[in-house]
Amino acid sequence: MANKQFKLTPEELRYMALLNTLTGVHVRDCIIDNEFNRIIFVVNPEEIGQAIGPRGINVQRLRKILNKNIEIVGYSDKLEEMIRLALVPARVKDIRLVERAGKKTVYVSVEPGDKGIAIGRNGKNVARARILLQRYFGIDNVIIA
Fold it and tell me: Which terminus of the chain has fewer CB atoms gathered within 10 Å of its CB, N or C?
């Protein structure tokens, strides 16, 4: 069950409008992640290709305009599907949700060769999954196994 109790900043709304104008894609959400100097856009899964553009042209354009890394992620209101979308291209094998002392942790097991992809350089991919799952599902931690 997705949790939609968050407010977008004027800056995030501007970025969403920019991506929409550039691609015609309905942008569901935008998250500015200063730690990794990136903007994460959330779009409907069927519009990811259109948002990225042929050979990533739209992502490259936005990166130049905004001087930040651009990441485009599909959205789902189902926890398991959202985890898979947040960790693409890693192949997810199994997902386990554990709740202890009011904290929700998701343990995600991926194909052995995909562990590095799922975690990402300096943990940036697992951090993206954590941000998205906290925002939409109230998940406190994501652990890649």
Answer: N
Q: Using one digit for the tens of pLDDT, what is the confidence trace for 106-119?
A: 999 999 999 999 99
Give the residue carrying structure tokens 């398991």. 80
Domain 90-144: assigned CATH number: 3.30.300.20
What burial letters (b/e) apply to 101-114, b meaning 16+ CB within 10 Å? Answer: eeebebebbbeeeb
What does the alpha-carbon distance between residue 17 and residue 115 come to, in Å, rounded to a whole number? 34
Contact partners, residue 49, CB within 8 Å, separation at least 6 = none
Domain ranges (residues) in the chain: 10-74, 90-144
- pTM (global) more than 0.85: yes
CA dihedral 72, 141, 94, 116 (to 10 degrees): 60
Please give the distance of CA 60 from its chain centroid, rounded to a whole number: 18
Residue 71, SS3 per DSSP: strand
